């Protein structure tokens, strides 16, 4: 499977919105917008982030086209990572390959990532890439409407 990263295009947004509002994916990610189906909130989020020079955002393509997105951004002085993969492609190595490619694009370290405790697949992707679990905290998961244990991972090199 070949993975490539490219600029996120307007034409990608309909598919990303569909994935980001999929109930199964929202349950796994947990930390989403309060109403993941709200298209205007989705559009505002992506417009803001695509126009922010501090955000590095890429579309993830595999051999069959758009497979997800991956990005980094700064919050409270920490560089953080986020990604979203088509639920139909989970468990096929897309996230791992996209993260490996993205780590060549994003030079800043340390790099942090946050994962809901129940999202063991995403945690495994991070560990395989060299991230180390450094903290856990209870955070409000707007997408689920309740508090969830969130694990924090860090990559130093």
Automatic annotation (TrEMBL):
Top-level lineage group: Bacteria
GO terms of molecular function: acyltransferase activity, transferring groups other than amino-acyl groups
Pfam families with a match to the protein in the record: Acetyltransf_3 (PF13302)
N-acetyltransferase domain: residues covered: 3-156
Protein name from the UniProt record: Acetyltransferase
Organism (species): Modestobacter italicus (strain DSM 44449 / CECT 9708 / BC 501)
Taxonomic lineage of the native organism: Bacteria, Bacillati, Actinomycetota, Actinomycetes, Geodermatophilales
């Amino acid at each position: 499977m070949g993975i490539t990263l490219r600029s996120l295009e307007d034409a990608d947004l309909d598919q990303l919105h569909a994935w980001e509002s999929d109930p199964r994916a929202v349950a796994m990610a947990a930390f989403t917008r309060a109403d993941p189906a709200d298209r205007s909130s989705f559009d505002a989020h992506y417009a803001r982030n695509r126009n922010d020079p501090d955000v590095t955002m890429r579309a993830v393509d595999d051999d069959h086209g758009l497979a997800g997105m991956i990005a980094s951004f700064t919050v409270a002085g920490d560089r953080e990572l986020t990604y979203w993969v088509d639920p139909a492609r989970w468990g096929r190595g897309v996230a791992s390959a996209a993260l490996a490619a993205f780590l060549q694009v994003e030079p800043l370290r340390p790099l942090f990532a946050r994962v809901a405790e129940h999202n063991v697949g995403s945690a495994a992707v991070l560990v395989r890439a060299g991230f180390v679990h450094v903290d856990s905290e209870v955070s409000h998961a707007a997408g689920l409407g309740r508090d969830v244990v969130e694990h924090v991972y860090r990559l130093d090199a």
